[in-house]
Amino acid sequence: MAKRKFDATATLDALLGPAGAGNLVSQDQLRMLDVRQLTPTPHQPRTTFTEGNLRELADSIRENGVLQPILVRTTPAGLEIVAGERRWRAAQLAGLTTIPAYVRDLDDQQAAAASAVENLIREDLNPLEEVEAKRRIAALALDIPEDQVMTRLRRLLDKPEEDPDGVRELDTAFGRLGGEKWQSFLRNKGRILNLPEDVKEAVRGGLDYRKALVIGGAGDAEERGRLLALARDGATVQALHDAQKPPHTQREAQIKAVARALGQKRLLERISPRQQSRVDKLVAELHRILVEVDEAN
């Protein structure tokens, strides 16, 4: 297999160093920079900045200053903000002329990784931002677009032998970041990327991601709204499970359970040959009936 264009291991080593994420923002690289000399990076994952939130941050900056320096790199065009564009915008609203910044020499791939890593070490990080940052790290490790990452991770979880180099890059990248492994990320927090937008917005606002996963399973917006209201009132994860409306019929519940089970490869691999034969016959019969109905219509 050809070597990937991006080496996640080497890049994270260069960014984080032996001590981990702290080396990304070491004190000896701290500078005070003129806000007018800075331009945003094209690698910024956040594309919109709510005016109300910016003004709230600007008010905080007027009172307390910029508590977390931004991350900047030098480019032929000048100084580029790798991470911290929101703080930069808010600082200007607050009337500041300079802003504290860590200055690093980074290429484009390193800048994209650094933006993700810097987001991961923010104190105010919400679960959705964490997942998006880790997805970016995985995309760089696998050298694929971000919108293909989760599908690729699911494939590697089932068949790691298809791309051992990719698995090794992921293991090292997530290991250098600390915390969960990429397999756990895929099974747990990574699932919030598939949530409806109204539930994602609630996560951005502070909703626990475990509650969000329960609410996101509701079939329609009205039901999700009801569950979100319960969550705002303090409902636990179990209470949200209990509050969900049951399937209309036992038949509907059975259909959902069968469809879910047929999509679980590892479950199917555990059944006996005799059971497998029965399943194959039932699936074939169901397929025949559905084809007949489809052709009749």
UniProtKB/TrEMBL annotation:
Keyword Transport attached: no
Give GO terms for biological process. Answer: chromosome segregation
Q: Name one GO cellular component term.
A: chromosome
Q: Which residues form the ParB-like N-terminal domain?
A: 31-120
**Keyword set for this entry?**
DNA-binding, Plasmid
> Per its record, what are the GO molecular function terms?
DNA binding
Leader sequence segment = none
Statement: the UniProt record of this protein carries the keyword DNA-binding? yes
Gene3D superfamilies per UniProt: 1.10.10.2830, 3.90.1530.30
Family, per entry: Belongs to the ParB family.
What's the protein called, per UniProt? Putative ParB-like partition protein
What species is given as this protein's source?
Answer: Deinococcus deserti (strain DSM 17065 / CIP 109153 / LMG 22923 / VCD115)
